[in-house]
Amino acid sequence: MLYPTPRLTIDAPIVARLLPRISDLTVTLMTAAVGSFPGLDAAPEGHFTDFVMPMVVESVLAAQRSVEAGRDLTDEEIAQTIVPLTEYYTEQRVPLRALISGGFVVIAAALEEAFGSARPEDMADVLALNRFMLDYVGRAMVILFEAHPDIERSVYRIERHARRALCAALVSGAPFAALAVQADMMVPERFDLIALHVAATAVTDPKFANNLSRRRVELVQLELDQIAGTTALHTFDGRAGVALLPFDEQPPDPVHLQRLAVNLTTHLGEPVIMIDYGSVTRDDLPSASTQALEFAQLAAGLGRPAGLYGTDDLLLEYQLVRPGRVRDRLAARIRPLLSQKHLLEALEAHVRHGWDRQRAAEEIHLHPNSLTYRLRRIAEITGLNPLHPHESRMLAAALIIHRLYPASAALDERPA
Predict the structure, then answer these.
(1) pTM for the full model?
(2) Which of 3, 115, 253, 374 fits 346 for a cystine, CB–CB 3.0-4.6 Å?
(3) What CATH number has the domain spanning 190-319?
(4) Could you say which DSSP state residue 6 is in?
């Protein structure tokens, strides 16, 4: 017992007054069960009756049998209704928080029905009924919490696999109609496109790499579901991928997307770069997805901190690193510096601090005059003067290319 109170008996007046009203009580509890979950009360009449009503009736009858036997309900008796109801409502996309809240709504409705007819002389029976219900709800919540993760994985596994396959088809331009049916989705004409990239900061033991990737995919899916529910699609494989959110007239809230990047960085244990590419038509998804992933990889390669970025934040760098002979020739301008690390270090500090010689010198522990001397040496060696605005920008561009594509800077510079 939870506390010393009389045990409820079948002939207690409060119970005797309830028994003739069992049918009405089950309808009341069923209405509370359905109405407590947002959106389900708008379903067609009778939509939930065939499944939920028998469960409610069985719960009431099990409670009656246990009272007649002078005992509490067993875990098995509670699970006979709690587990099927959890499965059913999970299939209806009712989240765990709403499921728990709805359970308490039903218990409150049952107590209200019972206590509504109580009289002063029924106080001992009221306490006994209250103890019985508290014992029931406490163990029912434990059963719910233990069962829900497995139920959710089972219910969503096939659908989530179909949604990933659908997303892969959309971003590759492959046929998707059959996959949309499997995913139980109407594919919209436009999507809001997001690219995800995890910047690797640690070496993963190959024995655990697959498990880690699967866990990361699950975490990304759960976080995306918080934003767009089961309409969110993604191709994330544990390291990179795109996410498609059904287009709305209002773009995704940047605050929510930034929070998503923070949450993923926390959960995945490594910096997560997100690119908000904006709205894209279904036909443009293949090319846009490729470009969005390139932006994400670029941000990671440049050492940008974890977080959310727009394409405008990386336009210059993206254009600079487009493949081609011009890119390679520009990177080659700093090739003579690669063997003189002190000069390369001075140039990087100079570029980072944008002409602030004092801060640049402090960073690499030099006197400003010594930094100026090194910058002049760079001008002599490369033919580009870091102290000249235009030539300094060319050197900065060459550094970006070298950082992302070191091989380019090693190419011989030959006349065009």
Answers:
(1) 0.57
(2) 374
(3) 3.30.70.1230
(4) P
